[in-house]
Specification:
263 residues; alpha/beta; Rossmann fold; 2 domains; two-stranded antiparallel ribbon; 12 helices; P-loop_NTPase
């Protein structure tokens, strides 16, 4: 079950029609939260995965130039006029798809901190005005209730305007007790003692100065690995040390863990 803070923010977002900005370390379930909200509400789910260099146009859509050129060539051969700036020539991307969808939707803008400030500003404008304009095609107005979730790993400082417009939610790594519950829900066949031991080690590993801190998913992967390799039985230090590589992503991290946790 989600904690009270998440439930409160979700309730306020629905009532006030405000986006939710979710921050926290990588691997704490920010993206999964948006998916879970969509499932709980029975809403359609759309996702824009941001990356360095992404443009607002790539979030909205782009013209199918090959199709346009083909139709222009056919028009030339038939000696007819052909309008190649209709919707059938435009490839709609998730942001625009969520706007024109006639059903309630959850729109995830994932890792907005990887996009530049100009893209962030255009996005806020579109969400604020509830419309998107495409050159040569026209303006699309929001046709449904869209709950917008933005996630950030704090790679860069977001615009003050973004924080002003959003409800803020911070998700940290869970407590050991909560993480055991999460892992058990995802791997129900795992012995409780095994899950507790893995989570306990993961919690200790996270306190080290690592390049890549293990996520909640790492705990799940480790438990599943032990179930496959050891049938979940007689899990000793040797088995744990041999399989810990599943949750470590660099050689430097592996050396630190083997030295400080298993020695």
């Amino acid at each position: 079950m989600p904690d009270d803070n998440i439930i409160t923010i979700l309730f306020l977002s629905l009532e006030l029609r405000k986006p939710i900005l979710v921050e926290g370390p990588p691997g704490t379930g920010k993206t999964e939260l948006a998916k879970a909200i969509a499932r709980a509400l029975g809403s359609d789910f759309f996702r824009v995965q941001c990356y360095e260099g992404i443009t607002f146009e790539q979030m909205v859509g782009e013209w199918n130039y090959q199709k346009q050129l083909l139709h222009l060539e056919m028009s030339r051969l038939k000696e007819t006029d052909q309008d190649v700036f209709g919707e059938e020539f435009f490839i709609k991307r998730p942001l625009l798809q969520s706007f024109i969808n006639h059903k309630p939707s959850v729109m995830l803008i994932d890792e907005i901190d990887k996009a530049d400030e100009e893209v962030e500003s255009f996005l806020l404008q579109a969400l604020g005005e509830k419309e998107i304009t495409v050159n040569d095609l026209g303006t699309f107005t929001l046709k449904n209730d869209v709950l917008v979730v933005l996630t950030s790993n704090s790679q860069r400082i977001l615009l003050d305007e973004t924080r002003d417009r959003c409800l803020f939610l911070y998700i940290d790594y869970p407590t050991a007790e909560r993480e055991v519950e999460i892992v058990k829900s995802l791997v129900p066949d795992a012995p409780h003692e095994l899950v507790e031991r893995v989570v306990g080690l993961i919690q200790r590993i996270r306190k080290l100065d690592l390049v890549k801190i293990p996520s909640i998913r790492a705990s799940v992967d480790w438990v599943r690995t032990l179930l496959v390799t050891q049938d979940g039985q007689d899990i000793g230090d040797e088995s744990l040390e041999r399989t810990v590589r599943v949750v470590l992503k660099t050689e430097e991290d592996r050396e630190k863990v083997e030295t400080r946790i298993f020695k």
